[in-house]
């Protein structure tokens, strides 16, 4: 890795740590505050958010599945089937991803890993393992910016295609065309931009506060969020930097299996093929 790439990598890791800390905190608080409120308004801009209104039922997003679908954007699977779609956001590697991969392999559970440039640069062997074991490696942009601030199609394209180019150089394969907006920040124009590039935009229907690496939840705290809120067709977002996720994933997948759930690839998400 040359000096310029090393400099970029260090800057990216610092930025990702800060971004991760602020990325989703309002969402979890919002979910608690509006659990009994009216359904979220139909919208297609701002920050992705969810309202959990009934335990065990799919949450209401701040944009409807139908509205998102016209832009090849999704957050939820078939709510009539006990299927879970596992996804991980990967800003950087800090020693937990291989344990996560081991647990997925044990359960024969496919997942999608949304990666940024830093993750591919610093952990190419792990990226190659993801692909070799049949997981989707998705596009989380090269630099993890607020994509809702990018109105220019060429600038938007560069963030995604720079990551796709790096993935191709690293694996010899084409990057699957699945995109997750950093921090869940998006605009209707972004959805159109991603669609024009052939990408499916993938949000989520279940997440919890797992990204503070120096303040990780206990296993019981994680289960308290992830078990009662699981639902049919759930698109689950976890972070690969979480020590707790690495420690509980085997047991968590077992608990979900005991509840009757199976795991499927985003390639099987209705409309997302």
Give the amount of beta strand, in percent: 5-15%
Average residue pLDDT = 87
Radius of gyration: 17 Å
Spans of at least 5 consecutive residues with low confidence = 1-42
Please summarize the sheet with the most strands. Answer: 5 strands, parallel
Helix tally equals 10
Query: What best-fitting shape do the alpha-carbon axes yield?
Result: globular
Helical residue percent band: 40-55%
**How many strand elements?**
12
Distance between the termini: 36 Å
Topology pattern, helix = H, strand = E? HHEEEHEEHEHHEHEEHEHEHE
Q: What class do helices, strands and sheet pairing give?
A: alpha/beta
SSE topology sketch:
Elements: H1 3-23, H2 25-33, E1 46-47, E2 50-51, E3 60-61, H3 65-69, E4 73-74, E5 83-90, H4 97-106, E6 111-115, H5 117-122, H6 124-132, E7 136-139, H7 153-171, E8 178-179, E9 185-186, H8 188-196, E10 200-202, H9 219-226, E11 234-239, H10 243-258, E12 262-263
Parallel strand pairs: 4-10, 5-6, 5-11, 5-12, 6-7, 8-10
Antiparallel strand pairs: 1-9, 2-3
Helix pairs in contact: 4-10
